[in-house]
Amino acid sequence: MFANQLWSTDKESRIQFNMAQQRIRDPLHNLIEFKVTGDDELERTLWRVIQTRPFQRLRRIKQLGFSDFVYPGASHSRFAHSIGVFHTARQLMDVVRTVDGRSETRENRALAAALVHDLGHGPFSHAFETVGKRLGLKLADHEHVSDLLIRQGQVADILNNELGSGFAIDVADMVKKEGRVTVHNAVVSSQFDADRLDYMRRDRLMTGTQHAAIDFAWLIANLEIASLPTGVDDEQTGTVDTFVIGPKAIHAAEAYVLGLFQLYPTVYFHKTTRGAEKLFTELLVRIVTLAKNDSAAQTGLPDRHALIKFAINPDDLDIVLCLDDAVIWGALSLMSEAKDPLVSQFATRLRDRKLYKCVDVRARVSHEFDPESKGEAEHLAKIETCCARVNEKLTEWTKANSEDIHRVLIDEAERSPYKDDVGSLGRINVRTDGNNFVDLKQRSRVVASLSDFKLSRAYHDCNDVDAGKTIDSIIEGEVEACR
Asked: Which parts of the chain are coiled coil (predicted)?
């Protein structure tokens, strides 16, 4: 009898414990827990935010867009990333408390901001933003949409009702980097913010790349809080508390900078991923343009399709919430039968992964002017000039020789491995043994020697022999002209 009563009590305790928290099994962080009963009002509220339509939509938006064309495992969502950022923010908050103590209101704002910072991303994320910039569509800007979704609607109602009137506005301001800046802002936006610390490790894990490994545990163990001067140029306007690293973590910080930089050429700027993004961008630009010009019938999509509705009413936030990766993938078969040749061909190419062939313009030009990769200023200047002239000539040629479909797609991008020109908050500060703070570049020859990563590429149909020969001819001609 006693044993049965004991078992019953233990079972009831387990049930109560399970009801007291919700757990998410995450491939990076393992168990992420939310206390949904008891005194933890914040986590109970944020769990409700996760159940809202805007947040659940992030399940249908992949973190890395078309990267699974290259890395099949890279199908993780912005939903998983956002929850991972929240979990990482809780770990960073432990660092903050060692110096600042417990400031519940500011902590709550930062943790909420970490969770909802990505709400506004559209289908295929940054490629969708490129479409928005080309066509002047405000609601294609993920930061703008995130701001709206946090300040109004379901998310705002839950935050304000549970955590106090105006809480949603405070969270939106923190995401937008507005309002009073405290050390808690560093959790949301800094060189060591929760967003970057999650996506670097998550993207590496899910792609399977062996580059970009960081010693997260050692970095966290050596993160400190310091009051650093702010201002413009040499004029100090005030101070702000933010994250710095101790002297024992210099090598870990080097690996952190290198890891982020390595992700760009190997993952984010991979030629295949970028090639798919170029096709996607031109496809959506044509869809929106046709729909706005009363030619939606040319797209193969019905009038009630979310893409057509967005094209006609691009300022309707509710329509934007209907857009996600699944909507695009589901529409490709319809668009492949479109009357418009570009829509039909590009939709078919994306559906079947029949992408344009890539010609690495910069690699070929660099080989001509700097075959030993010495990086001398004279050679680098010629490379820049030549690449710019090649792109200019290719743009002119494709405009003159493309009727319905772009025969050459040009891709240019640049990424700095480490930015140190935006004041003390924009760089990694290292505490010296004498308790001074210096830029990581001053302590690391590795970081100081890094140069910007730049790409210049041209894409064309592999069956378009004339376009391929034209690209080769223009590159050869401009190399000779720049010698």
From this structure: none
**Closest by Cα among 91, 92, 80 to 26:** 80
pTM of the predicted protein model? 0.92
Element (H, E) at 24: strand 21-26
What are the structural domain ranges in the chain?
Answer: 359-417+452-483
DSSP 72: T
Asked if residue 61 lies in contact with residue 120, where contact means CB atoms within 8 angstroms, the answer is: no
Integer angstrom CA distances of residue 298 from 115, 287, 327, 333: 40, 9, 18, 14
Residues near 55 by Cβ (< 8 Å), separated by ≥ 6? 49, 79, 82, 116, 119, 155
| Residue 150 scores a pLDDT above 80 | yes
Write out pLDDT tens, residues 52-93: 999 999 999 999 999 999 999 999 999 999 999 999 999 999
User: Which tokens is 391 given?
Assistant: 């792109």
Say which DSSP state 142 is in. Answer: H
pLDDT band at 101 (very low <50, low <70, confident <90, very high): low
The pLDDT tens digits of the residues spanning 378-403 come to 999 999 999 999 999 999 999 999 88
Could you tell me the two tokens for 320?
């934007």
Ramachandran quadrant class, 236 (left: phi over 0; alpha: psi -120 to 50; beta: rest): beta
Q: Where are the beta strands (DSSP E) in 101-255?
A: 223-232, 235-245
| DSSP one-letter code for 65 | G
Structure tokens belonging to residue 244: 């710095």
Kindly state the DSSP code that residue 463 receives in the 8-state scheme.
T
8 pLDDT band (50/70/90 cuts)? very low
**Considering only 165-179, 208-222, 233-247, which range has the smallest mean pLDDT?**
233-247
| Average pLDDT score, the chain | 92
Q: Do 447 and 412 contact (CB within 8 A), yes or no? A: no
- Looking at residue 246, its amino acid is G
What is the C-alpha to C-alpha distance for residues 323 and 307, in angstroms, rounded to an integer? 7
DSSP state of 136: T
Are the CB atoms for 410 and 423 separated by under 8 Å?
A: no
263 close to 243: Cβ distance less than 8 angstroms: no
| Nearest-angstrom CA–CA distance, 111 and 430 | 26
Question: How much of the chain exceeds pLDDT 90, in percent?
Answer: 81
Q: Are 198 and 206 in contact (CB under 8 A)?
A: no
